[in-house]
UniProtKB/TrEMBL annotation:
GO cellular component: cytosol
Key word Protease present: no
UniProt KW keywords: ATP-binding, Nucleotide-binding
Record's keyword annotation contains Lyase: no
Source species of the chain: Bacillus aquiflavi
Domain PIN intervals: 3-135
Protein name (record): PhoH family protein
GO molecular function per UniProt: ATP binding
Length: 442
């Protein structure tokens, strides 16, 4: 039986094309949702862009009929703007204040009551990304769902970038001697290009090896940069060794790193970037950027020039650079960076419209980027550049993103079959014993 889906504002602001995601059912947009969308369309961020996109989409539907009536969609469903069910009579004894959320609930509740009176009444489902709105809906007997169509993966099945395989000791020795093995001789399991294999002895000895699948996906080969020291930093665990391999390989233009706080993502990426630009000269400049999304309450406008305004947001980057340059005195790092001239620390706000050739680009905290923002960044990458995206999908500060629909997860899943990209999930924290316990327990 067909259903009626009532959409909350946050669904449209998260995905303007969500109105086409409900198959052949009826989509209802309460009038108060249009008011909320209208109040956001002047924002200069992703929410404002989506609000403007929603406005254009709904305006284009007017060509097919009147919005307060049912307008057919290409997927077989219909859409309409609900103008009449704003009566608070059913909910006035439960929710005293006529907030926008409660007005949306009232629309859905009144529609549900109407359908219940019909002989073949349809189910009315409120779709919202707001947890408390779904809780309120359940409390008044309404069906409520989260909007899940924007999720890249359904569950915690994000690609890790590595697999464990077991071989006999003779095959392990042959791998060490020849430097490669045909994947067909190991297992029938499908592999992705640049995927790592942790090869262990099937009889349980301590013998093991680490290999990487070649671009053709037919051979596993030894690492090019196994146990490589970069700017005084050595990998402390097997996943960090994988990360170093990806960060230093010229033929891998896109690297994605995910992991909890303290797993070494930023430090390894900066060390690799400095080595590739300053020592090897493979790139002209090292560009480091991160999105400006505050943790907790925003501190408001900051005084000073652009560099002074950016410093608080970019401090985690500078902390790692101070460690790599072994600076002791205040202002010493700034003097070093000014003298080198090949390191640029920037906010992502200033990347739009740029073309960035021959640079080693590091984007930190990429889990706070939307799919559209991550596309904007990747399309800025010019010839001869390498880009590293990293972050922790479990630590998201963006109001409309989660571990399953953020830009970093999106790139990991969409690029895992491409020969120019590599990915690894860092597991073990190396910052300190306390930091690892905090990441695991809190």
């Amino acid at each position: 039986m067909k259903k009626i889906y009532v959409l909350d504002t946050n669904v449209l602001l998260q995905d303007p094309y969500s109105i086409f995601s409900f198959e052949d059912n009826e989509v209802v947009i309460p009038a108060v949702v249009l008011e909320e969308v209208d109040s956001k369309k002047r924002y200069m961020d992703e929410i404002g862009r989506n609000a403007r996109q929603v406005s254009k989409l709904i305006d284009s539907l007017r060509e097919s009929g009147k919005l307060h009536e049912k307008i057919p969609l290409e997927n077989g469903g219909v859409i309409r703007i609900e103008l009449n069910h704003r009566s608070f009579q059913e909910l006035q004894n439960i929710f005293i204040e006529k907030t926008n959320d409660n007005r949306i609930l009232a629309v859905a509740k009144n529609l549900a009551i109407e359908e219940q009176k019909k002989e073949n009444g349809r189910s009315v489902i409120l779709v919202s990304k707001d947890t408390l709105v779904r809780v309120k809906a359940d409390a008044i007997g309404l069906l409520a769902e989260d909007f899940l169509s924007d999720r890249v993966i359904e569950f915690d099945q994000i690609y890790t970038g590595f697999l464990e395989v077991y071989l006999e000791l003779d095959e392990l020795n042959r791998f060490y001697e020849k430097g490669e093995l045909p994947l067909a001789e190991i297992t029938n399991h499908p592999f992705y290009p640049n995927q790592f294999l942790i090869i262990k002895d099937s009889f349980g000895s301590s013998s093991s090896a680490l290999g990487i699948v070649d671009h053709s996906g037919t051979f596993v080969k030894q690492l090019v940069f196994d146990n490589e020291q970069i700017w005084g930093i050595r990998s402390r665990n097997v996943q960090q060794t994988m990360a170093v391999e990806l960060l230093l390989r010229k033929d891998i233009q896109l690297v994605t790193l995910i992991g909890k706080a303290g797993t070494g993502k930023t430090l390894l990426a900066l060390a690799a970037g400095l080595m590739q630009t300053e020592d090897v000269g493979a790139y002209k400049k090292l560009l480091v950027a991160r999105p400006i999304v505050p943790v907790g309450k925003d501190i408001g406008f900051l005084p000073g020039e652009k560099e002074e305004k950016l410093r608080p947001w970019m401090q985690p980057i500078y902390d790692n650079l101070e460690y790599l340059f072994n600076t002791k005195k205040p202002g010493e790092l700034d003097a070093i960076l000014a003298g080198m001239g090949s390191i640029e620390v920037e906010a992502l706000t200033y990347i739009r419209g740029r073309s960035i050739p021959d640079q080693y680009i590091i984007i930190d905290e990429a889990q706070n980027l939307t799919k559209h923002e991550i596309k904007t960044i990747l399309t800025r990458v010019g010839e001869g550049s390498k880009i590293v995206l990293m972050g922790d999908p479990e630590q998201i500060d963006h109001p409309y993103l989660d571990a399953y629909n953020n830009g970093l997860t999106y790139v990991v899943e969409r690029f895992k079959e491409q020969t120019i990209s590599g990915h690894v999930k860092l597991i073990k924290g190396e910052r300190s014993g306390l930091a690892q316990l905090a990441a695991d327990l809190l």
